[in-house]
Structures are given as C-alpha cells and as structure tokens.
Amino acid sequence: MEQQVATFAVKKGLAQMLKGGVIMDVVTPEHARIAEDAGAAAVMALERVPADIRAQGGVARMSDPELILKIMEAVSIPVMAKCRIGHFVEAQILEAIGVDYIDESEVLTPADEAHHIYKHAFKVPFVCGCRNLGEALRRIGEGAAMIRTKGEAGTGDVVEAVRHARSVMDDIRRLQNMPEDELMAFAKDLGAPYELVLETRNQGRMPVVNFAAGGIATPADAALMMQLGVDGVFVGSGIFKSGDPAKRAAAIVKATTHFNDPKILAEVSRNLGEPMVGRQISAIPEAELIAGRGW
Amino acid sequence: MHLNMKIGVLALQGDFAEHLAALERIGVQASTVRLPEQLEGLQGLIIPGGESTTIGKLATAYGLMEPLRRFAERHAIWGTCAGAIFLSKDAHRRQPLLGLMDIIVERNAFGRQVSSFETDLDVPALCKVDPQDRPFHAVFIRAPLIESVSGTTQVLARLPDGRIVAAQQGRLLATSFHPELTQDDRFHRLFVEMAK
Fold it and tell me: Does the predicted model carry a pTM greater than 0.90?
C-alpha cells in the first residue's frame, strides 16, 4: 500500500499527541527555547502576544514568515502559527513554509466577515476557536482537526475561558441525554452539521481534541480548565508577560499534568514572581472584545 | 478478561487516554501513572505518543527515571512514537532518555507534520496473537525512525524501503507508529502476552 499523507486521521492525530500538554505563545527563537526547556508540547510563533495586540491596536496580520522559520529552526517540538479568519492565502503561505498547525485565529483582525477558510483543502491541519459546541462543530465541518475554546485572549482573566468550556461541556451532556427525535432540532438550534452532532453524541465528547485558551495566566488557571474537562491548554500572554517566564512556564506544564493533585499544584504555585498584569474582562468595552469574531 | 493482569499507562503528557481505551477494549485492567508509587502492582507499562522532550522533563522532575529503569528489570514496557524515543539509548539530541533498549532513533525522521502519513505494514510477530496474517494499518505522526538496533534487539517491522519502525528486546517493545489511534488491537494483545 502507498503512503497516504494529510488524511483527517493524521491531522487529528497530531492534536492527540499534544493532549495533556501546554502550547505556548512565543515571539522570538529565545522564547521558543525557553518554552521547550520548560516542557511545552508545542509553541505558537507570532510577532506580538495578544496582550500587545490589544494594547497597540491596528490591524493584526499573519507574522513574518522569516520569524516563524527562525522559531521552527530553534526547537524540535511542533510549531503553530496564526492566520486571519478567512484569509486562505495567509494559510497557503504558512503551509508552504511547513508549519505543523495553523490557528485560524480571532486574535488577528478577521479578513472575512462571513466565511472561514475551507480547511479540508489544505494538507496542514488547523485549530480554530469556539465559544460553544455549535461554533466548534461548524469549524470541524469546514475541516478543523483541533478546537480550542476561545476565552478572551490577552487579558489574563480566565472567566471567558471558563464560560466557553462550560458551555461546550453542557451542550455535550444535554446531547447525551436527548432522545433521538430531538436531535435534528438541536442541530438546527446549534447551527451545527447534523452528522457531527450525532458523532459528538456517540463519542460523548467533542469529535476532535479540545484545548482551552484565552486568559490562562497561572498554574491554578491551567488546572481549573483541565478539571473542567479540556484536553490541554494554550497559554498566550500569561508566560512571557510575567516576571519569571521560565519558572512560570515550567509550573504551568506541571500543573497541566498533575491537574488533579492539589498538593503538587500548591508546590508549583509557590514563588513564581509577578503574574502578567491582567485586565478584567467586565471592564473592557464591548467593541474591544475579540471572542465574538468568528461566524 | 485477563485476571490479575494490570497495565499502567504513563500519563505525563500525550495520547494516554487512547491507550487506556484500547486496553479496555481487550478487557485488560489499566491505570494511569504520573508518580513513582503508581507503578506498584503493575505487570506492564505503556509510554504513549506525545512530545518526548515534555515527557522526559516531567519524568525527571517527578523522580520517575530510576523507578522506570528498575520496573523494566522485572516487567514489560512498550513505547509508541515519543515512548519509543524515551526507551532508546540515543536520539542524537540532549534530552532525558531511559536508555533501556539497544536502539538508536532519529526524531522527526520523516519531516514536519505535512509529511505525517498512514500505511500498511507486514508484522509477522502479530501471528502470535492472531494467526490470520493480515497487514497492520499504521499511523505515523511526526514519527521517529529506529535508525539501528544492536544487542539482542529484534526488528519486528520495516517500511517497504527497509527502514525499521518496530523492534523488540526481551520484554521491551518500541513502535514508531501509533496502534492506539486505530481500532486494530493486535499490538496491545501482543504486549499483554509479553507482560504475562
């Protein structure tokens, strides 16, 4: 038999290998090495972390391929990179330079206000954000091989990450208890493909790996999301906007593994230095919130 | 059911839940291992796929390296992908390795994720658990190759071009690919036989 590349099993498979791990935002090769040394399962290569994108404003675009390539050379773990929602040419460029995963991300300024990228057309796998199960299943329908709950990136406030994870878990629990004759109307309400609703019900979980993102800043935040039932965590601004990135990164990795062991969580939470300066989401004007981007 | 047989799955990072599900499908009791004391009472251990650097660092931080080496003196261990790297003597890179198997591995030997692939392999050793000689469908994710084997290590599977992707040395088993990502449980049954 010939070798088959870029199958959905292979795309989904890399996300399965990242489970129980931490994916860290890095803006330089040095950051990437610190992340790898701390035990990151993968890194997200970008020019500015979400907290800076938020602070500086302007249009946020795909990062310079040169920077991404330098980060790819610096580490042996998988490297992800972000493209704008709907910007399939940025995605083509990221595929051409060989990144391991593309994040079609609301953190960047959307390029299309109606459509996401048709991700089945690519060899490289995609991860996409969601606020609820319907949004997740629409993205999977378009070809996403991994999902992350969105949270509110660049805030250091975990409240939206919790809301989105709880919303997804709640919909899955409802689905499992639902009689078959109500499934079609439920799929219609979610705005999700019926077949994927059925698959979610049969598996009792999201059909692809589901991480949490957006606002995770401490080991306790990471363990909180794991106990809520996600498969792993993305940490963006929370590490390199803190006082001691290397130490905090290693602590969050340990907390993600030992998420159910409060003694270890207490141990790794000690003496981490200053956390990132957070922004309370309830105090941010609605127009500045980014989780609502995505259709 | 395999009475009195309990297999652990190292759950520091990676697709350990997929291995637990595969063991459950074949009726073997299984538990997760994150700390040394959780090795007690196990007849075998699976080290899953994941990132070998992450798994190595966490194993070192929580004092698992020596207990795992001692465990291997009496019991079976199987490493898939990152697990196979972790079992090896040499991975051409400075990272924590158990160094239990006489194999040298090359990490990410096929390139980056866009080169990950699925293919069928001939694995004659699987006849021990299923006399029907059919190919094994193997999923390779940013996979390592087993560059060379030495000592008492035997090759169990090769790609059509001859490169080694599965090997066994006594009660130690290494596969470059992920049997836990398929519904074919023959490798899991072979490992349970090795652990008896």
Answer: yes
